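Example is below:
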Amino acid sequence: MEKLKLKRKNSESTVTSQAEHLSGQIKSDDFCDMKLDALPELFDILHRHVIPFKAARYSPPPMGLDSRLRSYLTKGSAQLYDHQASALYHLLKRNNVLLSTKTASGKSLVFMSFAIDKLLKSPDSRIMVLYPTRALIEDQLLRWQQLSETFGFKTGFLHGQVEREDKLRVLETCQIVLCTPDILHYWLMPSLHLSAVANWLSALRFIIIDEAHTFSGVFGTNVSFLLQRIERFANKVQYFASTATVAGANDFLRQLTGKDFLEVGLPEDGSPTHRKEIVFVSPKHGNAINDLLAQVIASNIKFMYFKNSRQGIELSLADLLQGDYGASLMPQIRDGFVCTYRGGYESKDRKAIMNSLRLGRLKGVLCTSALEVGLDIGDVDLVIIDDISPNINSFWQRVGRAGRKGPALVIQILNNNTYVEPESYLKSPLLKPSLYKQLPFFKEWHDHCAVQEQVIFKKRAAMVQKLQFRHSFRNMGATFKLGLEYNQGLDLGDVDYEQYLNEAFPGAIYRYLGRPHRVGWRNKEFIKCQKTQDISVFSEEIKFSLLSPDNIEDGFSCYLTQAQTVKAIIGFSQFDRGYYYNAKSSWCKKPIFKLYDSAALVVKVAEMNQPVSSQIEELIKVFATLAGFDKNDIVYHLDKDKSLLIIQAIIPGTGLIEQVLWPVKDILLGLLDKTLAGEEIADFKDTRFYLESHKTDPVLDVVIKNAKFGFFVDEKAGKYLFLPYSGVNSQGYYEIITGTTTQRLVNAKYFRPVYQQPSSVIVDIMLNGYGHYAEPEFEDISTDEKPDASILGKHDGTEHCLAEVCA
């Protein structure tokens, strides 16, 4: 394997010396007392970082809790952590509370306890617990049921896979209802004419949003408007939200719910932190990862192995069984001590895996991001992360899965072509979830729903179902169930259409719980498979685009247009034999394709060189971070023949391209300029590295063409943000471009514009702060206002050179 070219600093480490970092002569007992003798033999040790032990801090339950609940919480020697007691205290004061402490800090106990307190004091109240996925509900349902039954209440799970009578029975008999937003939108709100639904909503007093940071992008925007619709029929609601540690959590919750929240965060976190070591490594040879996994499985270490690809983790398990150690590992895997976990598994399989993890029966799991969020997995000694996580928030979620009850080790593997500086990566700022409430598309759609719901409340309207189902709630297309042909009793999970194209097309080898199945045929709802041997199949995919206008005029580097992009699977190869979807094929008679027909942001790249092609994934991720949109809501395509980069929204008509991406296109052009110059941008992967840095290390030059930019500076907090502005208005205020609107900046201690050179401005940023980036506050511009010199951010009539900005 080609050695990684990684930047290393000579700065002193807080853990060991630089020589020890890179020597590879590290004893196994250095790694949190884990006997991983193979680690320095298989990997180059690039960097080590230790999170030290921190003792727990406790507080008594607040006095306002019902005495029965206080007795329950304090029985034996049990105590509350500081943040748990603080959150309960503020809930008792009728505040909306946001709890944003670290992973495994006991957030669930807070909202479960307050829900019971609410019911003990007001038994006729109803409580809704909103989870992002069914898997989370299935994981938490038993805990809810046991706690509520202890106090004489009932908890129910509202979902779409039961008959209407069963749904109504849940609403009529259960004081606590667990659900995802989908069932509220597709069934509950269109059923307002039913007395059980209307009565339940009128009695709703407390809404809990668990893992609130996942309610972002198209999905989160829809949830935000859905909550507004619900509150039209339940207007005395108090909120509680739990979230991972993300940037701007309080502001995000205000956007999501329209409510002000009191945040209990990391400073108040009283949960213990066990010593944890994060080790960045690079494989010495191609089999290093499998050799490490084989040693870990053969040991008594409880581990999680993260990979970004669904079928990637399935293949990893297959590779282990086919390797030199397959025979020795087979008993462990066959007896269920090691398995895979990803999205799309059957409910019964998910429950079995999670139960085995909690009870300690499962030694290890190879998983995707599906195990990052909220699920109770018990104690884990070792987390292995194969390649860089999808974003920095995801990385810390994975790190947080280890060391809940004792010391733990996290191994971050940097594979070939991964370019990241470990020290900088660890200090990179967290990302803020994105919403698109400024786009008229979403408001108009939900307004239609709200009008119909008002009619339903009195009399059912025939148009309701069409309006409710008109658009995807989660930015997903059709989904398909997979199962064995001639065996209706064995289901193999589900895939959406995009996953169907990638991993379950006719002739593909689809792996489920590590076992290979050959995909045969598909109808509108089902995909049928056959058991097979483990063989390698690679799809042959093409993409092509039709643009309007057809001809690109000289001089246009970036423009907004309509585009049709087709992603088509035209066949696959199996070893050295080709099987194509044509008249001679036994699999399919025509290509399988997906059409994206929407507005597009199109960039004509002067030279479609290798840096652009190889770094497009990282470039789009950084652009998404800086422009404030969710990467999962767009699709992009490099047309090498026409030298074009084409970006489209997955759901057409939302205005995402026209009103969010187009106003900040210059950020994208700046990133492309860097790649055309042969400079790496992966060093800033999913972070604000190219706008912010840490300590006194300079950020690399950023080239942005034909744009006006300035710094938002909050010197007291040591925070900085790079903002585009359209100019200075007649009253002397800077007009900042924020998505679709231009607003006045009012809270910056300084806003310094950078003057323009004729063709471009090269910004060499020297900053001394890191962590959460600053959140500027804006006001809508009123033409009849008089200038107020006391409002910060006012233009002083001067422009500043780079030396002044960086001073």
Summary: The two ends are 44 Å apart (CA to CA). The chain has four domains: 18-53+274-426, 58-268, 539-680, 691-806. The mean pLDDT is 74.
